[in-house]
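[Structure tokenization] protein backbone as discrete codes

[Encoding] learned vocabulary of local backbone shapes

[Begin record] amino acids and matching fold tokens:

___
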Amino acid sequence: MLYWLTNLSEGGDVFNLFRYITFRAGAAFFTALIFGFIFGRPLIGWLRVKQKKGQPIRDDGPATHFAKAGTPTMGGLLILSALFFSTLLWARLDSGYVWIVLLVTAAFAGIGFADDYAKVTKQHHAGLSGRVRMAIGLVVAALAGLAAAWLHPDILSGQLAMPVFKNALVNLGILFVPFAMLVIVGAANAVNLTDGLDGLAIGPVMIAACTFGIISYLVGNRVFADYLGVHFVPGTGEIAVFVAALMGAGLGFLWYNAPPAAVFMGDTGSLALGGALGAIAVCIKHEIVLAIVGGLFVVEALSVIIQVAHYKRTGRRVFLMAPIHHHFEKKGWAEPQIVIRFWIIAVILALIGLSTLKLR
């Protein structure tokens, strides 16, 4: 919104700063962060009053989780409020890519909110029907994939960009939309499965978001894209403003979600943030890199798939409990130990993902 102040600029004045993505990204970060600090405590108090008993705790979960009874959920509302306020304030609202990411985030937040609301009101860990969640998510992802394909330059539309291999494209044609659906819905559910310990999901989400903020800025700039040998996707640099706002909102939330958490993000936050990462990857043509940068989320999701498939076939479990972070809890790892080690892994994977930009 504030980008339009550039119309008042004649060059060399303060309004000229609003032309620069880097300036607006920095402003978006601090706006979202301050928003989180100001409204975090009142929102948590309101959620505590409304929910009374807070998020229901699974009976078959780690014994240490029973101490968390009464902690309110839906803290994702704090992240999303700060994120949307800051993005709408600082991003160019004539950017189609920004709107794709915003609307995907909002849609998955709506799915997550309905799920959290069902859990809180029923006081049971089974919320919204899995089939309903999946069906709505697939429809949203399909629309996002179609919109992204329409906005992409003709040379990139319907194409899958391969990392490392310079100028390598795989023509997916009509299969691009189903592929985009897999990326977006898969990312949303993988982040959702990762959200099981205080601070576990939000840290890797911010790390992955920071990585994709850098990539979106680079692929949206022809000079940098040509230098690195990556595909130039005009207009995607504006996504960096959204990502900066996400990081600021995430840090503001982490202030209250750090162990012991005063609030959980719930499906409201985890599905929305995962969907956002998937949508960004589709927009900037770095879907495969998302599997590297978000490798931690991939492992969490695979641990559940492996556990369920192996149990149905043999009646035995591969892990003590899935997702895999619960396996380490059952083995006696302290919660902060798991969280910090998973953050370290997320940083390593992010650096590997960034290295694909230059390994051509």
Q: What stands out?
A: The chain has a mean pLDDT of 91.
